[in-house]
């Protein structure tokens, strides 16, 4: 079964179709060569017949994930002759447990039919293993969008359509992906998408009751809080890699213009190699000598992203790259005037946020943030709420593996 390349901007879905083709000389020695040539054109350098562990969150997408899988995803994976092992998650955190016990020699891919929550769980389950380094290199993670937040699929598959995403996974290329260690208290977790304090965190976590609105709840929550001009004071220290927008733009364009000719092979990991050591320690350690803690008493938004799209109309981090060893960090003051606030909101949908003068945009490899003057509030890690207390983040270049269409860029419009 062969498929053409997906065109997400023109199509909303794909389906598998069988086309009989009668050969004049079916027993000819040329037939296997013809079939191989056809498959080679269809798949390119992508792995065929992937062995996929499919995790379905039956509560995702307002309870429609299982139906979406059976109707739109399973037929495409079956037509591509993928080997499938399907399991439904039963409760919060089940994805962590499944990934911890996964036989990584049996599978090439873990595909999550869910929103962004199950990928977050799987990353952290793989990270808790004794052979974490090997598991994170061996297993490619993919998202088949079936939730209210499908950012991973938007960035890697170029779509939030379940069928188009299934096709993208079938054709997807193994791609190194940076992961981020977040330490808070005595805990260490892995983040693949974003960390936020302030307006974006509240927009996401304080609108849980509006999930029936789908991705529109983010737009609504963002607008309401922008107009209030609420501040979220904190002390912040960062390890900056690219300080100016000109440097960031040049780095992005250089990466876009020079794709790797062949996929980079990760070094073979030892069976007992866990997560990498923390270069800068944890949030409980003294601040590194080269870092300076700077007060941000009028902080409106602190948003660090490892991917570009956060929702279909929110390309917050257009300069993000899969494996550049950096987080893209946005900071916006709370005391800018309402006209500038509204300009920020409109600029996100128009892919113009990066260029606004009121938006501080840097690429960093690590940071520490200490909220202050608030008894409670919202901190979001990959869309999951964590305790309202100081935390530190550090990027691990190429620690994880994903499937992507391009292999070196996200699907969002860059800078």
UniProtKB/TrEMBL annotation:
UniProt entry tagged with the keyword Iron-sulfur: no
Keyword annotations of the record: Kinase, Transferase
InterPro entries, per database record: ATP-NAD_kinase_N (IPR017438), Diacylglycerol_kinase_cat_dom (IPR001206), Lipid_Phosphate_FormReg (IPR050187), NAD/diacylglycerol_kinase_sf (IPR016064)
Classification via Pfam families: DAGK_cat
PROSITE patterns (alphabetical): DAGK
GO molecular function: lipid kinase activity; phosphotransferase activity, alcohol group as acceptor
Signal peptide bounds: none
Annotated DAGKc domain residues: 47-186
One of the record's GO cellular component terms: membrane
GO biological process: sphingosine biosynthetic process
PANTHER family assigned: ACYLGLYCEROL KINASE, MITOCHONDRIAL, SPHINGOSINE KINASE
Protein name (database record): Sphingoid long chain base kinase-like protein
Organism in which the protein naturally occurs: Westerdykella ornata
Taxonomic classification: Eukaryota, Fungi, Dikarya, Ascomycota, Pezizomycotina
